[in-house]
Amino acid sequence: MLARYQIYRGPSPPPLPNGIRQDTRWRTKHPLRPTKEMVDAYMASLDDAGWRRFRKAYLALLEERFQTDRAPFDEIAKLARDGDVFLGCSCPTKTNPRVDRCHTFAALEFMRKKYRDLRVELPQSD
């Protein structure tokens, strides 16, 4: 199964999910990470249009990475078929409170489309 979790820093963090947790924030080298520029542009414009621009650019980036080197995506899918894998991000936050407007939500949709046999759990949006 492939899902997401919130990376939380601070007092009394919620329990971590059991399974493989992968940090997918822009600072990492994860294949599902967005670029810093994409995140900065979205954080400067958190409205509907800003989300649509971010999502379109982010999905295009994932498609380019997938076409260039599919192996890291296949590895994530294999891990998720064999157990539980959780894609991590700091969202939701005070600045971006909607989990359905996090790159991990779009990444899960991308993986669901590419690997139709994969069980993908999208978080409930508010």
Description:
With about 130 residues, the protein is of the alpha/beta class. It has one domain. The chain contains four helices and three strands. Strands 1-3-2 form a three-stranded parallel beta sheet, with helices on one face. Helix 1 packs antiparallel against helix 2 and helix 2 (about 50-70) crosses helix 4. The model has no long low-confidence stretch (mean pLDDT about 95).
What characteristics describe this protein?
3-stranded parallel β-sheet, 126 residues, 43% helix, alpha/beta, single chain
Envelope shape = globular
Helical element count?
4
Distance between the termini: 22 Å
Write down the Rg.
Answer: 14 Å
Extended strand count = 3
Q: How would you briefly describe this protein structure?
A:
By secondary structure, the protein is an alpha/beta fold. The chain is built from 4 helices and 3 strands.
Topology:
Layout: E1 2-6, E2 20-23, H1 36-44, H2 48-68, H3 71-82, E3 85-89, H4 103-114
Parallel strand pairs: 1-3, 2-3
